[in-house]
Every structure is written in structure tokens, then in C-alpha cells.
Amino acid sequence: MGNVFGGGGHDLYMSNGGTAVFADTLMLAVSALALTEWDYRFAALIARQDQALMGSGAVGFLLEDVGWGENPTEWARNKRFVLDVTTLALDGHRWDELGYEPPCALKYLHRFRRIVAAFDPATAGGEPDELPAPHDVIPASCVQDRVLAPLAWCDVCMFCGRDRDV
Questions:
Q1: Mind giving me the DSSP string for 67-131?
Q2: Which of 41, 66, 121, 128 falls between 20 and 30 A from 135, CA-CA?
Q3: Shortest CA distance to 79 belongs to which of 120, 123, 109, 41?
Q4: Which pTM was predicted?
Q5: Which residues does 70 contact at the CB level (< 8 Å), separation at least 6?
């Protein structure tokens, strides 16, 4: 059982353990860079990849199903944000705080970055939008783990109370 992330006809399939590592490294990066409502919605999408919350093998998303914005300027800005988040994760941002060596993280992040870079947000139009709705997202941080806890209906961040051995 595993999870699929992809877009533009390209997929990244990961085991449940690989997905946990992928989501952990992206959450550390997105927490450092989020500034706008769209950024926080994307952070909430990453938080929803927490299989402890959503169930093993029950996560993943396609870029076509993400609402990238209303116009080419927003599409470009939001795509740049996702690329910047992925680049920061690739740089190993805060990996020393994970409590484990993230196996295969570089391979997964490089593949995801290539998929995002090749993706044209103008081709998106998924209904319903995979991004959590603005009213379901809050710009809140977990004091203990110093990451966003952006899901309004969840009272913990994706690191709290979870066994960090992947």
C-alpha cells in the first residue's frame, strides 16, 4: 500500500514510510516560507498528508486538482512558492531535528520538484480543489515543534504525539 503524488502525467509513488518522510521534510520547509493565504492552504494540504491523521495509504494529491489561483500571475507565484518550499526541503532545512535520517527524502523531493517544474498550472481545474478551504485553515504554529498546525479541525501539528521512527 502506498500513496501517489503527481501532475502533468508524471507520478511519484511512495510507500507509507516514504510518504511520511516526504511530508515531514516538506512541512519543515513550508512552515518557514508561508506568508499568504494560498501558502497556508498549501501548508494545510501538506499537513493532510499525515497518515497518522488521515490513514495509511489514504493520502496523496495531483497537481491538476490544486487550485493554483485565478490568473497567470497567481499561477506563477504559487508554483514558485511550491518550488521554493521543495528547494528548501532539498537543502535539508531542519532535518537535524527530525530524530531520524530521512531515507530516500532527496530522491522523492528531487522527483517532486521536477514534476512541479514541468507542470503548467493553466491546465489545472480540479473540482473540488484539493487545497483545504480558507475557513478550514489557520495560520497557527505548534510551539513545541515550531511548524505550522494549519488545519482548523486538528488540535495538533503533524509531529505531536507521533512516533518519529520511520
A1: ---SSHHHHHHHHHHHHHHHHHHHTTTTGGGSSS--TTHHHHHHHHHHHHHH--GGG---SS-SS
A2: 121
A3: 120
A4: 0.87
A5: none
